[in-house]
């Protein structure tokens, strides 16, 4: 027999091929560290043995109530043990977890329940008014379960039973079946849908498994790590940290509200070592009152992404003793797809220069197969010259299966064999990408492309500016001009002319905002500034 044939005859066997699924991380950690704390929530602490038993109870109880392969279970909750447990129990049945964005209104929630065909809704009484209205608007008959969390603010109960009562129906040793295939759907996530209906992004077990391991590696998690839940679990399943933290045998510290005082208190009390958050969350920590800030003598790693972190924000976080990792990704890529991998030479750079390097979105995560900055029309790769602007394109096993019940949007997103992110970037000679804007956010003034991020970067460097966002404003002469929305630090006094003078001193003149508006910025629950609202405000400013 020749070698080629001999190789081709070696086949897949149950002994050498098992579907990849993040559910196995829990089984393994519960075997190795049964008595270590897996989950903290206020005064509660569950060991890995208890965490696994609770997940098995939930899976068993849902199975007894008829939930099986391919069924959708929706959860409306902040970062609580119930939502974390749902990340194991539901996929372990081959069912699909639909973690709902708690900021959505009743009409949107009803849309998600209908479109996702949810059979069960596990909901926190905190959201009872929205959920009551959503249940009134949906045609579906659902089993509704109320989370009875002593740490929560409480609220009206809408369901047939409580979450703890449901758990009591289940078997703590339930032998869950797991997925049949690693391509099976595990999670359904509706994107924010700023225009039109939200799209349902579908994840598979394989992608979740890989992305979680990639994150654990990139963010250096281990069994001594303590991870604070400052990023919503409903957002890309918490960038897959819901599984990564368990894979490493680390401790999850739940957090119902993202507030500076609670974050600093948790860092001190639980010796938190890792947390994630949008740049806005970092900015909140930087500008927290002095009596809220605590000094800590251990290392706290913070991963940031979801929006471009201004280098000034990175620099201030470092000055407070945090080590910053910059990640970039989208819901469609299971959260992080790239990271700004550290280079030892950067240690020696002055802090401003180092922060500028770190503000780039970087290189592919270890589990992403391919990354390129390409031509949107042809999908051809563009030169790595740090100048040519193109679209960020991703390819690999950590890209969504597609949009639920939306074949045309899926096909458009995957045109030419690349996932099209809609983000514009340059590719540097050292292979690091740097995002300049979203396709829809780029400002075209007098025929020149102006990156709103570049102007924001400049504004964040002003010592009296706390936050800034720049959008296009229609202009009869220039087509569009940059319009800056600025929030000042407390006690600061600045006029529009001061802001414009600062920009003129630091930017090419055609990039300088023509309009400056002061006030707070509208944000999403994940801390993203809602530029579409600012664009509307800019339009409403008139001439
Ligand atoms: P949505 O489109 O609902 O905001 P996502 O939360 O998936 O959905 O956001 C993904 C987008 O966020 C990306 O397309 C990109 O524009 C932006 N983004 C995420 N991370 C970064 C980053 N590190 N730097 C710049 N932009 C980022």
CATH architecture classification of the largest domain: 3-Layer(aba) Sandwich
The CATH class of the largest domain, by name, is: Alpha Beta
Largest sheet composition: 9 strands, mixed
Termini separation (Å)? Answer: 81 Å
β-strand percent reads 15-25%
What structural class do helix, strand and pairing data support? alpha/beta
Mean pLDDT: 95
What is the gyration radius calculated from CA atoms?
Answer: 24 Å
Question: What's the name of the CATH homologous superfamily of the largest domain?
Answer: ANL, N-terminal domain
Bound heterogens, unique: adenosine-5'-diphosphate
- CATH topology descriptor of the largest domain: Rossmann fold
Strand tally: 26
Describe the structure.
By secondary structure, the protein is α/β, with parallel strands linked by helices. It has 3 domains: 196 residues, ANL, N-terminal domain (Rossmann fold, 3-Layer(aba) Sandwich), CATH 3.40.50.12780; 157 residues, Rossmann fold (3-Layer(aba) Sandwich); 98 residues, ANL, C-terminal domain (GMP Synthetase, Chain A, domain 3, 2-Layer Sandwich). The chain is 31% helix and 24% strand. The strands form 6 sheets. A 9-stranded mixed beta sheet has the order 2-1-11-10-12-13-14-15-16, sandwiched between helices. A hairpin with a 2-residue loop joins strand 1 and strand 2. Helix 2 crosses helix 3 and helix 12 packs across helix 13. The chain is globular, with a radius of gyration of 24 Å. The structure holds adenosine-5'-diphosphate. Adenosine-5'-diphosphate binds next to strand 14, strand 20 and strand 21.
């Amino acid at each position: 027999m020749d070698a080629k044939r001999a190789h081709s005859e070696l086949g897949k066997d149950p002994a050498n091929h098992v579907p990849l699924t993040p559910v196995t991380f829990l089984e393994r950690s519960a075997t190795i560290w049964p008595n270590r704390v897996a989950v903290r929530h206020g005064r509660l602490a569950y060991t890995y043995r208890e965490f696994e038993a609770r997940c098995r109870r939930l899976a068993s109880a849902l199975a007894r109530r008829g939930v099986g392969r391919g069924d959708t279970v929706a959860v409306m909750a902040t970062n609580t043990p119930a939502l974390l447990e749902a990340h194991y129990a539901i996929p372990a049945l081959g069912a699909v977890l639909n973690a709902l964005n708690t900021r959505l209104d009743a009409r949107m929630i009803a849309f998600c329940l209908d479109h996702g065909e949810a059979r069960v809704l596990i909901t926190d009484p905190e959201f009872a008014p929205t959920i009551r209205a959503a249940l009134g608007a949906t045609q579906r008959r659902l089993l509704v379960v109320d989370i009875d969390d002593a740490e929560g603010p409480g609220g009206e109960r809408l369901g047939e039973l409580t979450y703890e009562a449901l758990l009591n129906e289940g078997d703590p040793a339930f032998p869950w079946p797991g997925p049949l295939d690693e391509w099976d759907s595990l999670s359904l996530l509706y994107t924010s849908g700023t225009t039109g209906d939200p799209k349902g992004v579908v994840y598979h077990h394989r992608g979740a498994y890989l992305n979680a391991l990639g994150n654990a590696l990139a963010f250096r998690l281990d069994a001594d790590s303590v991870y604070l839940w400052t990023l919503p679990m409903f957002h890309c399943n918490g960038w897959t940290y819901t599984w990564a933290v368990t894979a490493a045998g680390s401790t999850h510290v739940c957090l119902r509200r993202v507030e500076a005082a609670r974050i600093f208190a948790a860092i001190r009390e639980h010796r938190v070592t890792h947390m994630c958050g949008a740049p806005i969350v970092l900015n909140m920590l930087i500008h927290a009152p002095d009596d809220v800030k605590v000094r800590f003598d251990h290392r706290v790693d913070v991963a940031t992404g979801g929006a471009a972190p201004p280098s000034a924000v990175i620099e201030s976080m470092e000055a407070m003793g945090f080590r910053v990792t910059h990640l970039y990704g989208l819901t469609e890529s299971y959260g992080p797809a790239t990271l700004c991998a550290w280079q030892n030479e950067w240690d020696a750079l002055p802090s401003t220069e180092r922060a500028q390097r770190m503000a780039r979105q970087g290189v592919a995560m270890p589990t992403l197969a391919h990354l390129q900055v390409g031509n949107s029309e042809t999908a051809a790769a563009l030169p790595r010259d740090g100048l040519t602007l193109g679209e960020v394109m991703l390819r690999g096993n950590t890209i969504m299966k597609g949009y639920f019940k939306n074949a045309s949007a899926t096909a458009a997103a995957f045109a030419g064999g690349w996932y099209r992110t809609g983000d514009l970037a340059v590719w540097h000679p050292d292979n690091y990408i740097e995002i300049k804007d979203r396709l829809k956010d780029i400002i075209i003034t007098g025929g020149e492309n102006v990156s709103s991020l570049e102007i924001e970067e400049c504004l964040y460097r002003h010592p009296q500016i706390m936050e800034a966002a720049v959008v296009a404003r229609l202009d009869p002469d220039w087509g569009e001009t940059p319009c800056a929305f600025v929030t000042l630090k407390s006690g600061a006094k600045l006029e529009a002319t001061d802001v414009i003078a600062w920009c003129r001193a630091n930017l090419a003149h055609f990039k300088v905002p023509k309009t400056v508006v002061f006030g707070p910025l509208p944000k999403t629950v994940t801390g993203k500034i809602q530029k579409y609202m600012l664009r509307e405000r800019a339009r409403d400013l008139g001439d």
